[in-house]
Write a structure and sequence with these properties.
This protein has 364 residues and is α/β, with parallel strands linked by helices. It is built from 15 helices and 13 strands.
């Protein structure tokens, strides 16, 4: 069991909006478990959030801006400077927008640490996924970039969720960061459902939010080129378009809308491979798949470069050509599923907690 962190020290934890449990939310929950004495603050909790009942919401939660994130962004730095009048010895932020700029009034010295999921995409990389490139932020974007740097100079130390994000921290903020990969519940996904321990893996799997940068259209084309059935799991605004494209495919395409955690594990275990032609900061889904012994075929960029071992746990491609992916799929028999599953343990939640504890102990 992990020893308690920072005994006798007052600690505040802060996070952006807390939604239905995803990668950043899992990070924040894991850190809060290491520091049960801490006060945990979030901008707001979404209505579908399943955890975080004890987290304290900011005043922004009482405004209509909570429902329009792009419009709320310019107000977030102010929110993090007016969060509370309480004193804390240590403040640890979990940031993918402006949480790392948090600074509290304090009678004594305060140490600020920040775990970064990514510098705010809407501000620094507006074209990255196509959703932040609209006109709403075009005018204030440069001002927000300057404020992002100026208001975070007090941060003592950064941790980044991947080498990809560490490079962005260096490029945008001119700061270094320790790489600490986010937690994955490997033990859960590694435990095969009883009825699937000897089941033949028969289909390809695409999983994630159905939005343009996740490349589900390409995933359908890959399955079609490989002449293999496809399961698409998740939800999102592209559902109607993807179903139309699936109807035109020459292979069976099945949709699983918002699968439960249990069903998700079954889908991983039943898949021949996970298709993930996506540029992600880190990417939890490929690690969960590998925990099930399922190989990953994805893009040779971003977080996949540190979660997938080429020729051992999957194959990474520089191309978006479906035929190239189909060709790589023919090599799946070269891979050992036990070795794939063993690789996933390096990203387990206990590893994350140990690395966070080491970072905090070194810096405070």
């Amino acid at each position: 069991m992990q020893a308690p962190l920072l005994p006798g020290r007052s600690v505040a934890l802060v996070h952006e909006w807390f939604g239905a449990t995803g990668g950043s939310e899992n990070v924040f929950v894991a850190i809060s478990e290491l520091l049960p004495q801490a006060e945990a603050f979030v901008l707001w909790r979404d209505a579908d959030a399943r955890r975080g009942d004890g987290f304290r919401e900011s005043w922004l939660a009482r405004t209509p801006l909570r429902h329009v994130k792009p419009l709320a962004l310019p107000v977030m730095p102010l929110t993090w400077r007016t969060l509370t009048r309480e004193d804390f010895d240590v403040v640890i932020s979990s940031s993918h927008a402006f949480a790392h700029t948090v600074k509290l009034s304090s009678a004594g010295p305060t140490t600020y640490l920040s775990y970064v999921h990514s510098p705010a995409r809407y501000v620094w990389s507006p074209g990255f996924d196509g959703r932040g490139a609209g006109g709403l932020l075009s005018v204030p974007r440069r001002a927000l970039q300057r404020a992002d740097v100026r208001l975070s100079r007090h941060v003592s130390s950064y941790a980044a969720n991947s080498r990809e994000v560490r490079a962005r921290v260096r490029r945008f903020w001119n700061r270094d960061a320790r790489v600490i990969n986010p937690p994955v519940d490997v033990a859960y996904f590694a435990a095969a459902p009883a009825h699937q321990r000897t089941q033949t893996r028969e289909y390809l799997l695409g999983l994630g939010r159905w939005i343009p940068y996740k490349n589900f259209g390409l995933i359908i084309e890959i399955a079609d080129a490989a002449r293999m059935p496809l399961v698409i799991a998740g939800a999102g605004p592209q559902e109607v378009e993807l179903r139309r494209r699936a109807d035109r495919a020459g292979v069976p395409v099945t949709f699983e809308v918002r699968p439960s955690r249990e069903r998700l594990r079954e889908l991983y275990w039943g898949a021949r491979a996970l298709l993930f032609p996506v540029h992600e900061d880190f990417g939890i889904v490929p690690v969960e798949a590998q925990a099930c012994g399922t190989p990953v075929l994805g893009a040779r960029r971003g977080g996949l470069l540190e979660t997938v071992v080429y020729g051992e746990t999957g194959f990474l491609l520089d191309s978006d050509d479906p035929a190239r992916y189909a060709q790589a799929l023919r090599r799946l028999d070269e891979l050992d599923r036990d070795r794939i599953a063993a690789h996933a343990w390096r990203f387990d939640t206990d590893v994350f907690k140990a690395n966070i504890a080491s970072w905090v102990s070194d810096e405070v």
